[in-house]
Amino acid sequence: MANKKNSTKKQTSTAEKIKIISGSAFYLGYSPVMPGTFGALPGIAIYFGLWKFLPPDFLRIALLAVVICLMLLNYYLTPWAVRYWKSKDPSQFVLDEIIGFLCVPIFYGAHDFAGTALKGFILFRILDMIKIFPANYVDKNVKGSTGIIFDDVISAGYAALGLFFLDYIQF
After folding, report:
1. pTM for this entry
2. How many domains does the chain have?
3. Which one, 45, 119, 129, 151, has the greatest CB density within 10 A?
4. Residue of 27, 138, 43, 15 whose CA lies nearest to 100
5. For 1-58, what is each residue's pLDDT tens digit?
6. By the 8 A CB rule, do 83 and 144 touch?
7. Do the beta carbons of residue 8 and residue 81 sit within 8 Å?
């Protein structure tokens, strides 16, 4: 009993562990290099599962439903994440990266999985890191969950445009 009282190690509740796991995409957001890129990887798995098991006519709707659910989770967890990781946009908190990647096939039209996943993921991550206007404006000036999410959604839009361009040049 005395040992428990004198312990300086902070105990993490089950609810907090679930928030950490959810917000960091199963700890991928803790990657020491490119946490956003590693944190976005579950988006590929989600996209693959929906692509594999749903008829093509329902894929976009299902992706949109998942994005909406993740956005709601992001809005719920953001105040906690900001306090927990002591940052207005914590690098460990990567739900926005998953949302952003999943927007690429929504905007692009969810064509073939391999091409959309590979090229779309690479384009999305590059564009999310460099943040072309208005993504950079949103990132710097829009506070809270909305800013955290929508700079990624804008980058996803640019990635989809990049995919259309690659189709046009037949790459």
Report:
1. 0.90
2. 1
3. 151
4. 43
5. 445 544 445 677 999 999 999 999 999 999 999 999 999 999 999 999 999 999 999 9
6. no
7. no
The whole-angstrom separation of Cα 158 and Cα 162 is 6
Tokens describing residue 65: 């439903």
Query: Closest Cα to residue 151, out of 124, 169, 128?
Result: 128
What is the token pair recorded at 158?
Answer: 């640019």
State which amino acid sits at residue 50: L
Q: Which domain holds residue 102?
A: 34-168
How does DSSP assign the chain, residue by residue?
A: -HHHHH--SPPPPHHHHHHHHHHTTTTGGG-SS-HHHHHHHHHHHHHHHHHHHS-HHHHHHHHHHHHHHHHHHHHHHHHHHHHHHTSSS-TT--HHHHHHHHHHHHHHT---HHHHHHHHHHHHHHHHHH--TTHHHHHHHS-HHHHHHHHHHHHHHHHHHHHHHHHHTT-
In a domain, 131, yes or no: yes
